[in-house]
Amino acid sequence: MNGLDEFGLIERLVQRVPSSGRTVVTGVGDDAAVLAVDPGEQVLVSTDAMVDGVHFLTRTMGFADVGYKAAASTISDIAAMGGEARHLVVALAVPEAARLADLEALYDGIALACRDHEVSVVGGDVIRTGGPMVVTCTVIGAVPAGQAVLRSGARPGDVVFVTGWVGGSGAGLALLLDGTPVAGDVAAELVACHRRPRAQLLAGAILREAGATSLDDISDGLANELNEISRASGVRLRIQATRVPVAPAVRDFARRRGEDPLRYAWYGGEDYQLVGTAPPFAFARALARCESSGVKLTQIGRVDAGDGVIAEYEDGRLEVVEPRGFNHFAPREANEP
Amino acid sequence: MNGLDEFGLIERLVQRVPSSGRTVVTGVGDDAAVLAVDPGEQVLVSTDAMVDGVHFLTRTMGFADVGYKAAASTISDIAAMGGEARHLVVALAVPEAARLADLEALYDGIALACRDHEVSVVGGDVIRTGGPMVVTCTVIGAVPAGQAVLRSGARPGDVVFVTGWVGGSGAGLALLLDGTPVAGDVAAELVACHRRPRAQLLAGAILREAGATSLDDISDGLANELNEISRASGVRLRIQATRVPVAPAVRDFARRRGEDPLRYAWYGGEDYQLVGTAPPFAFARALARCESSGVKLTQIGRVDAGDGVIAEYEDGRLEVVEPRGFNHFAPREANEP
User: Fold this and answer.
1) Domains annotated on chain B, with CATH
2) Residue B310 CA, distance from chain mean position
3) Nearest-5° Cα angle at A228, A226 to A230
4) Do residue A130 and residue B129 have CB atoms under 8 angstroms apart?
5) Which residue ranges of B are tagged as binding site?
6) Where does the pLDDT of residue B325 fall: very low under 50, low under 70, confident under 90, or very high at 90 and above?
7) H or E stretch covering A129
8) Any idea which positions bind substrate (chains A, B) (predicted)?
9) What confidence category does residue A310 fall into, taking pLDDT thresholds of 50, 70 and 90?
10) Angle CA A281–A286–A287, to nearest 5
């Protein structure tokens, strides 16, 4: 570790990330960060860990990508509550063989994600491990009291929606692993989806304000997230498969591989778009605000009484969508998209 | 992992820990926890990671001890700000060979620490790793706005104090590693200090209210923490070595080993007592409140103009106390107490 001790290393890495902000009273350097909360707000907290070789592969992602994605994917949990992301703390378990340049690149990726999402790093820990690198991010956000959008509020009659395009991250990973020949711009788009996902904070805030009844971010694939909303809300979600906004680059990629592009949307995961429900009038309001803000919002189905998730295909075929997503404890073959 | 998938495992483990509380609006199970903050409060956040083989050894600690200590040592950072600890999120990287019973024991230890410190678990992540276990805890606390006690407020003329007894954890580790023959009750006390440290939340709150000017918790040894206060405050700390409250069991243990008991206080670390400074009148006020609350508080020195930490011994000898503590990136021999 180039002669740097644990304390010198933390100080050196923290210098690379944004560490101040309106609500940072005391940031990195004391026993705990001190953070201001505006009157009438509640605090949001979520934590996510990523392990080298399980959640990321250094042959498909650079260290800056790993840092960016670790931060953005954690920040995404705040978007999924309709909240404002504010602060990040980062705990890094570092293998003995890690190079300082790699850790600096990782922190540069975290720094870029923080700037893109207007978040500051207010704490952290850097420790040595005899195993692979583990990056654990915890995000602190805020939401007007009583307005956090849970997964449990979907009601029959609601619209089911998704933000942005989906499937890109899973297709990007498949491309990085297999090297399917596609046009350069298609490849670049898919790889960027996989390496540098954006948390949908603006969309989340618009949807909360418009009156969304449930919200979730797509970390484990649309199939899994829809089932979570269905289960938490005690409703059936009826999805029109043709309406799912599979990215054109994913369609192109899947066509070349002779695959159904929808599988990347259902099971690919890590798109970090938002999926949720809203009464029709609230959805219309959200749609108008999204359009004027440049946010893509698509109705993909309806909420019915009942349970589970049903996909309706163009030919009239109905199919139960199982809650299968990327599950890190499942056998590897179950995770192939 | 006994056929449990990642999601089933999280649910099963979380059932073992306290998960509700006055300020928990929405706990584990959604994308993020929703937490209430009382008017006039600021939020405190700190994160700590522990790695098997580096920060704990399964030959000296059971999994319940590991869980207890991971939680308590993180909660201690809130005590060191004079705050009230409220919530914990736990990210666990689990080796493939881990047994479910071990993870349950780990969570039972976390649960006990949460009960002892009146903290609830509001989130977590459980992931697989190809390496050793990594436990990352993030604690959320609160403090009246503007009243967090930093390390930087010590002023010449202040009293330097420490809570409780020190040296027990380092001596407990040495005992567990070497098996020095000592009386059963001495051994039990030292081992308990090492395996089940308590965060000094009550003492921290009393010291904040009384007007302490700096505060730190003893994670890396008194030598290191005193130097942190000295550096952050730009003052010299003059310590009367005989006043340092080295636990009687540590004196007994060190005598049998022919060692200076003070070394366990200076360099042992992990006592999680509080060290800090206060003007004499504030110290007197704190002392009275501590006595009526059953909290041990000891003056060990004075703040002077200057820099560094100076120990004064009975024979008049003065010695600079270097900021050497347990440093996980330092060569192993530097960490022997």
Assistant:
1) 8-144 (3.30.1330.10), 159-335 (3.90.650.10)
2) 24
3) 70
4) no
5) 31, 46-48, 55, 77, 107, 124-125, 151, 217, 219-220, 270, 326
6) low
7) strand A120-129
8) 55, 270, 326
9) very high
10) 95
Considering only alpha carbons, which residue of chain B is nearest residue A216?
Answer: B31
- Tokens encoding A301: 């189905």
Q: What is the ipTM of this complex?
A: 0.92
Q: What is the distance between the alpha carbons of residues B104 and B232, in angstroms, rounded to a whole number?
A: 41
Rounded Cα gap, residues A220 and A238, in angstroms: 19
Q: What is the number of residues in chain A?
A: 337
Crossing angle of helices A63-79 and A100-117, in 10° steps, is 30
Per-residue pLDDT tens over the stretch B250-290: 999 999 999 999 999 999 999 999 999 999 999 999 999 99
Q: How many Å apart are CA B57 and CA A150, to the nearest integer?
A: 40
DSSP B209-277: HHT-SEEEE-SS-HHHHHHHHHHHHT-EEEEEGGGS-B-HHHHHHHHHHT--THHHHHHT-----EEEE
CA A121 to CA A139: how far, in whole Å? Answer: 9
Mean pLDDT of B114-123: 97
- Give Cβ neighbours of residue A59 (< 8 Å, ≥ 6 apart): A176
Give yes or no for A334 touching B (CB within 8 A): no
User: Rounded to the nearest 5 degrees, what angle is found at the Cα of B251, between the Cα atoms of B246 and B255?
Assistant: 150
Instruction: Report the alpha-carbon distance of residue A36 to residue A28 in Å, rounded.
Output: 15
Rounded Cα distance, B299 and A329, in Å: 53
Name the band, by pLDDT with cuts 50, 70 and 90, for residue B87: very high
Nearest to B182 by CA among B114, B113, B261, B120: B261
